[in-house]
């Protein structure tokens, strides 16, 4: 059998495996075909690996990568806050190391002096908001590089990581998740973890949308306290037009059936989770295709991304997906017009294309716009040095840390329990 035909056969089997999971609810043919369009590219790549590497060896390799890459092992002082619907939100605080951050805070500028007058200024707090199907550990490299230099808050969005499942999304009166709700959640975390002092808000993907929702609902908070903002791989709207790198026919089919498929899958979570485990290689290929662009990404980093995404239950995936089609926060961006801003994206992002970041840059003409070559959606993991460098520059500009601070470019030296 030729390599090409073997790859094709494996791709067909992978698409059939996905179809078998969805077939009971969407007559498999339509849903399987649509999801199969997405799966095909990843499945073909997985097929080549299967020609030479057995399933047992692949499983051992994953375990070895998990052991060798202590990514996501950083922990801070834990805290919990209750959102307006009673959802328990988990966050962690990393405080400033006085010796490491000597000189920080002396150049916060007019906004900070206006806030605090002659009083000893409260430290700047940098609040990191993560993306869809991730958790606060996705900021591992930036957290490690900035640790001790600036006060940071990392939190898990509702139904992700260590935060509780959305209370309003459960029970007979369940309501869909909205980006506006996430904005209110962020306000809750700020009130609990950083009730005073200047703020820098940093958001990746859904986290950036959360920041926009905060500004839309609490513009005075932003005007009075936010001294800097960073939007990374995110969008202010029109996500329903994204083609995910698919041909027109394929993406149209996916758009028609995906919401229904996800809803059906979410209603059979236990069965679907078994299916995810059975097709781990296929989903690993999908994750790599839609998260990274570089061909030489560290395998341990790829595996880390897999773990983050795999940890998100399928019913949570289904709950959140419709909110992105409704997301439109173009008007909210005007709240940030006079605030130093960084807008950064991977040039090859298939999930929130870099054109969406360019659109944000057009609305914030004084922002620094950075497009990272050979980078995909998870640019914060794929090219952490580029993200950390530009973020550190923003923090120095707003006086959150000294310009001469020794910021690590990768922050990959963290040890478990650090």
UniProtKB/TrEMBL annotation:
SUPFAM superfamilies: alpha/beta-Hydrolases
Membrane-spanning ranges: 30-53
Pfam family for this entry, one: Abhydrolase_1
Swiss-Prot/TrEMBL keywords: Membrane, Transmembrane, Transmembrane helix
Record bears the keyword Membrane: yes
InterPro entries: AB_hydrolase_1, AB_hydrolase_fold, Carboxylesterase_BioH
Keyword Membrane belongs to the record: yes
Record domain AB hydrolase-1: where: 125-384
Gene Ontology molecular functions: catalytic activity
Protein name as catalogued: Lipase
Organism: Streptomyces scopuliridis RB72
């Amino acid at each position: 059998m030729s390599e090409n035909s073997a790859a094709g056969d494996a791709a067909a089997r992978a698409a059939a495996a996905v179809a078998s999971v969805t077939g009971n609810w969407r007559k498999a043919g339509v849903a399987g075909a649509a999801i199969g369009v997405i799966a095909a590219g990843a499945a073909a790549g997985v097929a080549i690996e299967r020609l030479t590497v057995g399933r047992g060896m692949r499983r051992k390799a994953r375990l070895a990568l998990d052991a060798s890459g202590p990514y996501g092992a950083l922990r801070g002082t834990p805290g919990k806050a209750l959102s307006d619907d009673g959802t328990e939100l988990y966050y962690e605080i990393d405080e400033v190391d006085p010796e490491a951050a000597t000189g920080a805070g002396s150049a916060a500028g007019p906004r900070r002096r206006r806030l605090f007058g002659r009083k000893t200024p409260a430290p700047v707090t940098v609040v990191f908001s993560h993306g869809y199907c991730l958790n606060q550990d996705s900021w591992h490299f930036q957290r490690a590089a900035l640790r001790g230099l600036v006060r940071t808050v990392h939190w898990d969005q509702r139904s992700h990581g260590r935060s509780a499942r959305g209370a309003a999304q459960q029970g007979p009166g369940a309501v869909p998740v909205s980006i506006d709700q996430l904005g209110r959640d962020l306000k809750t975390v700020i009130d609990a973890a950083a009730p005073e002092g200047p703020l820098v808000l940093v958001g990746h993907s859904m986290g950036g949308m959360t920041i926009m929702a905060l500004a839309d609902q609490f513009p005075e908070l932003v005007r009075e306290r936010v001294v800097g903002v960073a939007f990374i791989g995110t969008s202010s709207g029109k996500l329903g037009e994204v083609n995910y790198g698919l041909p027109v026919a394929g993406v149209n089919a996916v758009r028609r059936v995906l919401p229904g498929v996800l809803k059906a899958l979410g209603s059979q979570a236990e069965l679907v989770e078994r299916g995810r485990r059975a097709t781990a290689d296929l989903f690993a290929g999908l994750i790599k295709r839609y998260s990274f662009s570089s061909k030489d990404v560290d395998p341990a980093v790829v595996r880390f991304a897999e773990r983050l995404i795999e940890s998100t239950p399928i019913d949570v995936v289904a709950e959140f997906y419709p909110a992105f089609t409704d997301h439109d926060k173009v008007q909210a961006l005007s709240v940030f017009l006079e605030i130093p801003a960084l807008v950064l994206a991977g040039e090859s992002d298939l999930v929130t294309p870099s054109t969406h970041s360019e659109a944000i840059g057009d609305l914030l003409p004084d922002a620094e716009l950075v497009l990272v070559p050979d980078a995909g959606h998870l640019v914060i993991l794929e090219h952490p040095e580029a993200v950390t460098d530009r973020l550190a520059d923003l923090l120095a500009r707003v006086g959150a840390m000294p310009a001469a601070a020794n910021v690590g470019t990768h922050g990959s030296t963290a040890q478990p329990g650090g």
